[in-house]
């Protein structure tokens, strides 16, 4: 496909005892932010380390802009900005020393954008590299990756050490990168963050992709859920007897939750005309709820 920047085909790395990754297939399109979610040990890092050419797959392959991740690993590393899951810095005194070294390596002379990232993430780069907290290390690694002028960013759980405020700043930085036309592939186990940033998401479980979803289709989900609160017990009970698409109820709160296809919403409002309704609220299905359903289906 013309717009595909990363193509993962039947990628497998078998560590034995059911551990590893098995027949992973992914297409990451140019200019998209692609999320990779999964529980601990599901295979996110193994997939990413294959993408970056750090490990040789047992079967299948990854191509990035036509280059094979394993055979052309040196080229791949030069053309991708990468934040590893486990951050290890070279033996340098401070974060500033590391970032300067990185800027020299990347041939960056104007440090304006680097300083913008530092200020967005409220990083004190003068700190001792070895004594940095996990969050500080992560901020330093994000700065080092984002300051390079590369078209593709591969980020392995870049926000696990960040507090919620810094996560928001990170989301903003990723949006800026997307606006520049960059492609971003990032793993995370924080659904909310993925939901805010990503265009597409794949979910991995026990080393296999269980589902991929376009966030647009989630936002325009084909079924709707409404919480309807009635003014009186009589109306609440009559509605329960009359309407059949009830998902949940709470008699103390006079609350009914209904779930129905978008095409049937009119019918709900038609029925409700005859009732005294105190409030009605639409519940949006979250990425977490969606994947929980997929996850549970896979288990059953
Ligand atoms: N070098 C290795 N040797 C043996 N087993 C490995 C190796 N690397 C990973 N594994 C196993 O493969 C599975 C997937 O690990 P991986 O690190 O890819 O998961 P992950 O989704 O990134 O997890 P986390 O969210 O905890 O970082 C795990 O069961 C892990 O123990």
Strand order of the largest sheet: 6-7-8-3-9-10
Small-molecule binders here are: adenosine-5'-triphosphate
CATH class of the largest domain reads Alpha Beta
Strand content: 25-35%
Distance between the termini: 35 Å
Largest sheet, in brief, is: 6 strands, mixed
Explain this structure:
With 300 residues, the chain is of the alpha/beta class. It folds into two domains: 4-218, P-loop containing nucleotide triphosphate hydrolases (Rossmann fold, 3-Layer(aba) Sandwich); 222-284, Alpha-Beta Plaits (2-Layer Sandwich). Helix content is 36%, strand content 31%. Strand 1 and strand 2 form a beta hairpin. The protein is elongated. The model has no long low-confidence stretch (mean pLDDT 91). Bound molecules: adenosine-5'-triphosphate. Adenosine-5'-triphosphate (ATP) binds at residues 15, 19-20, 38, 40-46, 85, 189.
Gist of the model:
With 300 residues, the protein is α/β, with parallel strands linked by helices. Helices cover 36% and strands 31% of the residues.
What is the fold's blueprint, element by element?
Blueprint: E1 4-16, E2 19-29, E3 33-37, H1 44-51, E4 59-64, E5 67-68, H2 73-79, E6 80-83, H3 95-106, H4 112-120, H5 134-146, E7 152-156, H6 164-179, E8 183-188, H7 191-197, E9 200-205, E10 208-214, H8 215-219, E11 223-230, H9 233-242, E12 246-250, E13 255-261, H10 265-272, E14 277-283, H11 287-299
Parallel strand pairs: 3-8, 3-9, 6-7, 7-8
Antiparallel strand pairs: 1-2, 1-4, 4-5, 9-10, 11-13, 11-14, 12-13
The structure holds adenosine-5'-triphosphate.
Adenosine-5'-triphosphate is lined by residues 15, 19-20, 38, 40-46, 85, 189.
